[in-house]
Amino acid sequence: MGAVQVALGATTCTSLGWLPVSRVAALPLVAGAVFGMGVARAVPSGLAPPGQ
After folding, report:
1. Cα–Cα distance between 47 and 45 in angstroms, integer?
2. Apex CA 2: angle with CA 9 and CA 21, to 5°?
3. pLDDT, tens digit, for every residue of 1-52?
4. How far is residue 43 CA from its own chain's centroid?
5. In the 3-class helix/strand/coil scheme, how is 4-50 assigned residue by residue?
6. Using CB atoms within 10 A of its CB, is residue 52 exposed (0-12), middle (13-18) or buried (19+)?
7. What is the C-alpha R_g of the chain?
8. pTM score > 0.70 for this model?
């Protein structure tokens, strides 16, 4: 029921309490992406042809 109300726009969110929570949640996502790009650059892929 709550998801339907949110999807239809029947609710309003006036507080900004969700903003710090979303920033803290986004931090490990960004850190994981940067770490993954570093690992991908350091470790050669088994799918790449030899000499590349």
Report:
1. 5
2. 85
3. 566 666 666 556 667 788 888 999 999 999 999 999 998 888 877 777 776 5
4. 23
5. HHHHHCCCCCCCCCHHHHHHHHHHHHHHHHHHHHHHHHHCCCCCCCC
6. exposed
7. 20
8. no
